[in-house]
Specification:
Radius of gyration: 58 Å
Largest sheet: 9 strands, mixed
Number of helices: 26
Shape: flat
Strand order of the largest sheet: 5-15-14-9-13-10-12-11-7
Strand content: 5-15%
Distance between the termini: 30 Å
């Protein structure tokens, strides 16, 4: 197999198999009604009979109905809007509580007396429960009442219909009056809210004057003007400070000789030039910031040049006091000018800061004012709408008073019922049948869900995860053996024949001696063995399948000593052991030894109807120095019986004597089969699990619980379990195998009279069409 083929059969194939298995498991679960027909038929018949009895037991009830027609108004609604609703369904819902109120119903009960045997309170509640009010079309209503007496039903329905008309007219008048009063109150409340909101808007504008959104442009323009003026003042202040410094230096030189100082403002000019270089690295020369800084540098350079001209060359000596006094006066005036400019700059800075704060506060003010204005607009619209509705309601009220709104007319008066509405025979019988079938099916599904036993091989494989080598169908006579009427009834053949059939070779030193005990025939008819002689038997074919699969598995796994066991007693392991030994022993040249290892309750010899004989128990207990072996015919297999003394100590099942016996048997025979004890009740099988090569587990349909299988596999070594055989499969007849075998002339037992009948063939065809059974093409090929 190449890599592509392995990939195709890898996880995707496994996923498909798991999905198919889950569908099969669900399908078998849905087959519960077919497996448990009594649980379906019993409840269905009981409930159907109850429905039939209810038709005669339950009291009859009659229903009377009245139809009320609503005629529309004469004035179109497009001229004057109606306050009272026009929708009949809404009008019905509004009037229903009034009609069903206790006060109205007490009047009806007093006038009609529908339940004279009951008190007034109970009678009112019962009348309320029997009244039905429904919408009939777009402009009509039906009022119905149910009663045992048809005359009382008619009388109460007529009174209810008339009361319905009276109360509907009153309800419309009250509705109009209530709507007008409500609108008047709402208009007054809306006016008060609108006035309060108007005052709030006005107060907010007064409180935030200067910060309103409408003043934003003015504030921005003012701030720009003040910033320009601030720039001018700063330039003037800088020039005045430079002039003051120049005058101060002149006065200083006049009073004290000093060296020539550097021109004032040289350091600031250098700072401005560095700032200009930085701006030019980021912006072009046309940028407003670059042009502004460049013009500022030019002005400073011109002022420095004028200052140098004013200073002139440094005088050598100052002796004129008058000139010095003039310079000092000029210096004092320059200081006053500087202080004035600094005061002006501080004032401008304060104004700019205040205006900037107002501009920054404007968005929040705008949001708050928008909220107030929006609420005001909504209240104003609401007030106008309420005022308009109030006028319309007053006009509609006047129209209702003049025209009286809708006109009600009894279109169909209360009728006298002739047939009861309850119980209805068709409905009761149909419901009884459907409910009975659903209850039976549900009961069968619940029973199937609560049943812990294994029912099919798919579920079995999901429980234990081991391969299922065969699925033996259920037959009522498979578990019992009947006495033979003729033929050989057991015993020992002639020595010559026995010597021929019982040749297995000599025993080695230290091994137990196997002695021939003769050839015997079962005194009873064993169906499993008889099915192997019948070429038309399905059981025989399944036993041959079982033998072939097991032989192949043993050959591949090098298993020569196999123990057949089960979880619990009564699962058919002894019967299948005989059938398996007979199926394998029929092959020429193959020597199959069957050991009756169930020493607690030996049943294999009794099943075959053989006479008691010494065997395994005597060998293990030490009372017998050899092992007696008999040949069973028909079947062609060798048998070691359980013996007659029984097992004294359970530990002997795992003793050295048992080990030597099995070792010798492996050497002398092709396959050794042990009919072992069930695993869960006693420990005999677990004690000898190291002595055998493997275990074959027998699981019986509808008898072995899933937990018992898990517990059994938990007690045995996983490498010792080689497979499972599914016994007593009750759904085998519904499978495609039986249908195919029948076409080949095969059935359960040989007789053709056991072939499926017409109903079975129809059921099988439906199951095949629906995909619930195997493909029919296999049987017909």
């Amino acid at each position: 197999m190449n890599d592509d083929e392995r990939d195709d059969n890898g996880p995707s194939g496994l996923a498909g198999g798991e999905e198919s298995f889950h569908w099969n498991q669900f399908r078998h679960f849905l087959h519960a009604p077919l497996r448990r027909p009594l649980l379906v038929v019993g409840p269905a018949a009981a409930i159907f009979l109850l429905a039939v009895a209810a038709l005669f037991v339950l009291p009859k009830k009659y229903m009377s109905s009245a139809l009320v027609l609503v005629e529309s108004e004469k004035v179109p609604e497009s001229f004057i809007a109606r306050v009272a609703t026009r929708d009949p369904a809404q009008r019905l819902e509004a009037v229903r509580p009034e009609i069903l109120s206790r006060t109205r119903l007490e009047r009806v009960v007093e006038q009609t007396n529908p339940y004279p045997e009951l008190g007034k309170t109970i009678a009112v509640d019962k009348v309320r429960g029997c009244i039905v009010i429904n919408l009939a079309g777009n402009d009509g209503f039906t009022i119905s009442f149910t009663h045992r007496d048809p005359y009382k039903a008619q009388q109460v329905t007529d009174r209810l219909a008339r009361l319905f008309i009276e109360e509907t007219v009153k309800s419309r008048e009250q509705q109009v009056e209530g709507a007008v009063d409500f609108l008047v109150t709402q208009v007054q409340d809306a006016r008060k809210e609108l006035e309060a909101k108007d005052a709030a808007v006005r107060h907010y504008k007064e409180e935030h004057m200067g910060k309103l959104p409408s003043q934003l442009e003015t504030n921005v323009a003012t701030m720009q003007m003040l910033q320009r003026e601030m720039q001018t003042v700063e330039e003037s202040l800088m020039f005045a400070r430079e002039k003051q410094e120049a005058l101060a230096r002149g006065v200083g030189r006049a009073s004290v000789p000093a060296v020539s100082a550097a021109p004032a403002g040289g350091g600031e000019l250098d700072d401005l030039r560095r700032q200009l270089a930085v701006l030019r690295s980021h912006y072009r020369d046309e940028h407003p910031d670059v042009e502004s800084l460049r013009s500022r540098i030019a002005r400073m350079e011109s002022r420095l040049a004028e200052a140098r001209q004013v200073e002139g060359p440094a005088p050598q000596t100052r002796t004129d006091d008058a000139a010095l006094q003039v310079s000092r006066d000029q210096l004092e005036r320059a200081g006053v000018e500087v202080k004035s400019l600094e005061s002006r700059r501080a004032d401008l800075q304060s104004k700019i800061t205040q205006i900037r704060a107002n501009v920054e506060e404007t968005p929040r003010t705008e949001q708050d004012l928008a909220n107030l204005t929006r609420d005001y607009d909504k209240l104003n619209e609401n007030y106008k709408a309420l005022l308009s509705k109030q006028l319309e309601a007053q006009m509609s009220g006047r129209l209702e008073q003049r025209w009286k709104g809708d006109q009600f007319r009894m279109l169909d008066p209360a009728s006298l019922p002739e047939k009861p509405v309850f119980p209805k025979p068709p409905l009761f019988l149909t419901l009884g049948l459907l409910v009975g079938l659903m209850s039976g099916i549900g009961l069968s599904l619940v029973a199937e869900y609560l049943d812990p036993t294994v029912k099919d091989s798919e579920v079995l494989q999901a429980v234990q995860g081991y391969p299922v080598l065969a699925s033996i169908p259920f037959l009522s006579d498979l578990e019992r053996a009947t006495p033979r009427r003729s033929g050989r009834e057991g015993g020992t053949e002639s020595p010559a024949t026995a010597a021929t059939e019982m040749t297995w070779g000599p025993s080695l030193p230290g091994e137990p001696e196997f002695r021939a005990a003769g050839t015997v025939a079962p005194r009873k008819i064993v169906p499993v063995v008889e099915s192997l002689d019948d070429p038309n038997s399905v059981v025989g074919e399944e036993m041959r399948f079982f033998g072939a699969n097991l032989a192949d598995l043993c050959r591949r796994g090098k298993v020569s000593c196999l123990a057949i066991t089960s979880a619990l007693p009564g699962e058919g392991k002894s019967t299948l052991s005989v059938g398996l030994a007979s199926a394998l022993g029929r092959e020429p040249g193959r020597r199959v030894l069957l050991i009756e290892a169930d020493l607690r309750r030996p049943s294999l010899t009794q099943t075959l109807g053989l006479p008691p004989a010494l065997g395994l128990s005597e060998w293990l207990n030490g009372t017998l120095d050899h092992v007696p072996v008999r040949v069973v015919e028909p079947g062609g297999f060798f048998l070691i019986a359980a013996g007659q003394t029984g097992l004294r100590r359970p530990e002997l099942m795992g003793s050295t004597r048992m080990d030597t016996l099995l070792r010798a048997a492996r050497r002398l025979f092709d396959l050794v089969l042990l009919d072992a004890v069930p695993v869960l009740p006693v420990a005999d099988t677990v004690l000898m699990q190291d002595l055998v090569d493997g275990f074959q587990l027998v699981v019986r349909s509808r008898r072995t619980p899933r937990d018992a299988i898990r517990d059994t596999l938990g007690k045995l070594r996983p490498d010792r379990v080689i497979g499972v055989v599914f016994n007593g499969h009750r759904e085998y007849k519904a499978s495609h195998k039986y249908y195919g075998y029948h076409r080949y002339g095969m059935a359960y037992g040989a007789p053709m009279k056991d072939a499926p009948g017409l109903l079975a063939r129809i059921a099988l065809a439906l199951r095949t069409r629906l995909g619930l059974a195997g493909a029919d093409e296999y049987g017909s090929s």
